[in-house]
Amino acid sequence: SIVDSELRTGYHFQPPKNWINDPNAPMYYKGWYHLFYQYNPKGAVWGNIVWAHSVSRDLINWVALKPAIEPSIRADKYGCWSGSATMMADGTPVIMYTGVNRPDVNYQVQNVALPRNGSDPLLREWVKPGHNPVIVPEGGINATQFRDPTTAWRGADGHWRLLVGSLAGQSRGVAYVYRSRDFRRWTRAAQPLHSAPTGMWECPDFYPVTADGRREGVDTSSAVVASARVKYVLKNSLDLRRYDYYTVGTYDRKAERYVPDDPAGDEHHIRYDYGNFYASKTFYDPAKRRRILWGWANESDTAADDVAKGWAGIQAIPRKVWLDPSGKQLLQWPIEEVERLRGKWPVILKDRVVKPGEHVEVTGLQTAQADVEVSFKVGSLEAAERLDPAMAYDAQRLCSARGADARGGVGPFGLWVLASAGLEEKTAVFFRVFRPAARGGGAGKPVVLMCTDPTKSSRNPNMYQPTFAGFVDTDITNGKISLRSLIDRSVVESFGAGGKACILSRVYPSLAIGKNARLYVFNNGKAEIKVSQLTAWEMKKPVMMNGA
Ligand code: DQQ
């Protein structure tokens, strides 16, 4: 079993001990970023859930405060589950969260909590008004699958609207709309905002994005949202599959319904992240006019090891999100503040050819805790393998069937991170390029697959080491593609093609830890590739203080 302290993350958000899950109610208030999250004060497994609370000036260095919301009223006696914050017109935040109010079944209601003192920028104390719960399951709603209220938005009529995730019948994921004039009395709209046959929708998120190619974020309740230059994103966390998928579409305000642009969007399952990333939530940051995404990454170690380590769960590095110019998907990039943790002297590799079968070590720095950016240039796409039409929609299967060590045509090429000296241990983050499956003889653009293969990441037995993969919607005909990996001891968070596809993976090396972790560029394809530039920085530890 693995209990090495070298596996605790260095710069990802993590409390000193115990279990954490979903990020809750992220917000910016009077110069401080607030992060709440699901937390078990009593151990490293899920249970006894309260809202832990941390604050930061820069989303990187954190001060832990005492839990903000704990079971204390009838309507949340058995758990304070996920929820969101909304800024009232006067600038004070309100939190809406799910309370579990029965010990025998997880009967769920929605409650509000208000700051005791709005002039405290740290918002240390939260009070629960006596009129809780404010939303209860009625009209045939499944009371045990009814949770995770979103940030509310205000319509032109001045009324608030928010979503609650649910399950209708056996298998329909639903986002119910509730309306209120005063954030106290809520009425459900006759029709849900949207639904799809995907199973329970946990942690819905619904927000506007600018549709004119700018990276600026849009506030959920801003006046701009009524303009044509805004699109909407609806994200849901699929309880059954444990991943977050989203669609891009339009919000029909009159009908109070959301319509995805791609009618098959709910089946295609574009994901924020093709790895370990769940129950995420965005918020609008007025300080830097951007939308930021927070997601939770669970351990993929055994529960017994979690208990032995005394901790479980991390938050991914916050990502800025904006709409790709194609309008079809989002782009994601680690918030710029994380770059302040980079050491002064990066190691740089320039114009280095990596021949078929070759690997090149990047030396001169510690890489257990590092940030690596690479731009690759593929010599020729001639050698690209033909995509098996049977696999054309299943990145995961394609990647598991042909792991990083399987010789390919164009690729696999990419990085081996957290690698041991003898390469007994390594986590591969890579690309593989295919010729499109011949359909009607037309030659479409090459298909780019991005994968993380952790099957060799640890010599320890009995680990859950799923291969993760996604297609990257990028044009590689000029041979160019980029990769960035945030490596942090037991997490590898990677961004392909400038944030078109992301994969977060948890790994637990036993040899490739601390100073013994190495970094390589590898090429297991037939085509030569060139590293046009690789820049690798050691990452410093941020300040994680206890201010409780
Ligand atoms: N986690 C919370 C729920 C949510 C789930 C409970 C998602 O509110 O649906 O800890 O991870």
UniProtKB/TrEMBL annotation:
<keyword id="KW-0134">Cell wall</keyword>
<dbReference type="InterPro" id="IPR001362">
    <property type="entry name" value="Glyco_hydro_32"/>
</dbReference>
<dbReference type="GO" id="GO:0052576">
    <property type="term" value="P:carbohydrate storage"/>
</dbReference>
<feature type="domain" description="Glycosyl hydrolase family 32 C-terminal">
    <location>
        <begin position="361"/>
        <end position="538"/>
    </location>
</feature>
<dbReference type="GO" id="GO:0004564">
    <property type="term" value="F:beta-fructofuranosidase activity"/>
</dbReference>
<keyword id="KW-0378">Hydrolase</keyword>
<dbReference type="GO" id="GO:0050832">
    <property type="term" value="P:defense response to fungus"/>
</dbReference>
<feature type="domain" description="Glycosyl hydrolase family 32 N-terminal">
    <location>
        <begin position="12"/>
        <end position="334"/>
    </location>
</feature>
<dbReference type="GO" id="GO:0005975">
    <property type="term" value="P:carbohydrate metabolic process"/>
</dbReference>
<dbReference type="Pfam" id="PF00251">
    <property type="entry name" value="Glyco_hydro_32N"/>
</dbReference>
<dbReference type="InterPro" id="IPR050551">
    <property type="entry name" value="Fructan_Metab_Enzymes"/>
</dbReference>
<dbReference type="InterPro" id="IPR023296">
    <property type="entry name" value="Glyco_hydro_beta-prop_sf"/>
</dbReference>
<dbReference type="InterPro" id="IPR013148">
    <property type="entry name" value="Glyco_hydro_32_N"/>
</dbReference>
<dbReference type="InterPro" id="IPR013320">
    <property type="entry name" value="ConA-like_dom_sf"/>
</dbReference>
<keyword id="KW-0964">Secreted</keyword>
<comment type="similarity">
    <text>Belongs to the glycosyl hydrolase 32 family.</text>
</comment>
<dbReference type="InterPro" id="IPR018053">
    <property type="entry name" value="Glyco_hydro_32_AS"/>
</dbReference>
<dbReference type="GO" id="GO:0042742">
    <property type="term" value="P:defense response to bacterium"/>
</dbReference>
<keyword id="KW-0325">Glycoprotein</keyword>
<dbReference type="InterPro" id="IPR013189">
    <property type="entry name" value="Glyco_hydro_32_C"/>
</dbReference>
<protein>
    <recommendedName>
        <fullName>beta-fructofuranosidase</fullName>
        <ecNumber>3.2.1.26</ecNumber>
    </recommendedName>
</protein>
<keyword id="KW-0326">Glycosidase</keyword>
<keyword id="KW-0732">Signal</keyword>
<dbReference type="Pfam" id="PF08244">
    <property type="entry name" value="Glyco_hydro_32C"/>
</dbReference>
